Amino acid sequence: xxxxxxxxxxxxxxxxxxxxxxxxxxxxxxxxxxxxxxxxxxxxxxxxxxxxxxxxxxxxxxxxxxxxxxxxxxxxxxxxxxxxxxxxxxxxxxxxxxxxxxxxxxxxxxxxxxxxxxxxxxxxxxxxxxxxxxxxxxxxxxxxxxxxxxxxxxxxxxxxxxxxxxxxxxxxxxxxxxxxxxxxxxxxxxxxxxx
Length: 195
Description:
- By secondary structure, the protein is an alpha/beta fold.
- It has one domain (54-192).
- The protein contains eight helices and four strands, in the order H-H-H-H-E-H-E-H-E-H-E-H.
- A four-stranded parallel beta sheet has the order 1-2-3-4.
- Mean pLDDT is 84; it is low at 1-5.
């Protein structure tokens, strides 16, 4: 919702082929930035879905949109997970202090308690195990200071396997989550080949 750099709505065919129902902001793909959510979002609470994911961008603006569903989230009960996906290579989350400050702001705006941390430290196609190592160190400190557990460490297979082979403590790695990139931008082509 907030950072429109990657939009799932651009991959509608792929999403539908994966048996996923995508609900996007009302003005998605129309070059209009807004926090307007369609009424269809309410179906996340009213229908019997096996899994529902709200991806709101990881800052207070996206979290504010979740705040309006506070009563609905309360009714979900123990099935609700609020994961803070962290990339220490982003300006607002490169240190434990910044991560914690952002977490507090997200919790205040969403009126939800973060229940798990995800190390998704990366530099797009330039990612190496170094990003995951740096993320591990920062997020370990966040987990210790806040008591919020690390649930996942996410990365492309090669980088994540190399990181895992180094034997970091499982408590601050969580479950490995291997990801595959489906979204690419034109500038990727130029930077990948040094053009």
